[in-house]
């Protein structure tokens, strides 16, 4: 399965993959200050484990940062 996270291509041999698993595999471990959209639809944190990633999906991860 091939999918993109923040425009970067990722591949896995997994046939079924949750959004939560896809994020963890690719180094996103914290949920604090993180928003995720799957194919331009924002997915609430509580639905990451039950939302399936499909071949060709696009995941956008936005991390809040502090600045001044």
TrEMBL record:
Gene3D superfamilies: 3.10.20.30
Top-rank taxon, per record: Bacteria
Pfam families according to UniProt: ThiS (PF02597)
NCBIfam families: thiS (TIGR01683)
Protein name: Sulfur carrier protein ThiS
Lineage, highest ranks first: Bacteria, Pseudomonadati, Bacteroidota, Cytophagia, Cytophagales
């Amino acid at each position: 399965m091939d999918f993109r996270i923040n425009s970067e291509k990722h591949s896995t041999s997994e046939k079924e993959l949750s959004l939560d698993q896809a994020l963890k595999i690719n180094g996103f471990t914290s949920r604090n200050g993180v928003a995720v959209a799957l194919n331009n639809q924002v997915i609430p944190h509580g639905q990451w484990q039950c939302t399936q990633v499909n071949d060709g999906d696009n995941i956008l991860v936005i991390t809040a940062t502090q600045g001044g």
